[in-house]
Amino acid sequence: QVQLVESGGGLVQSGGSLRLSCAASGFRFDWTVMRWYRQAPGKEREWVARISATGAATTYTDSVKGRFTISRDNAKQTVDLQMNSLKPEDTAVYYCNTYRDRDFWGQGTEVTVSS
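RE: above sequence
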């Protein structure tokens, strides 16, 4: 079955960096678009970044462009999110996502950015 496990969250000061990782299993990872979402306290879940199956194409929500980088390793079946120049408004639970016949989500990893 599809399984997504995020790691790498934590507490960081404004301007700092974190690298999130998502380990995937149970499906043809190298055929599949992967995404990162986040959900801030009291807000709806929002899409953050997307990477194509080969890794050749990436897209980002405007608020993270130039600061976040999504990447993948198809041999290891992982997708990472490198987050630089973090801001307090980046504080959220970050989720790895893929869509097969429905959305699949990991358990999330919490990122807190202090001012």
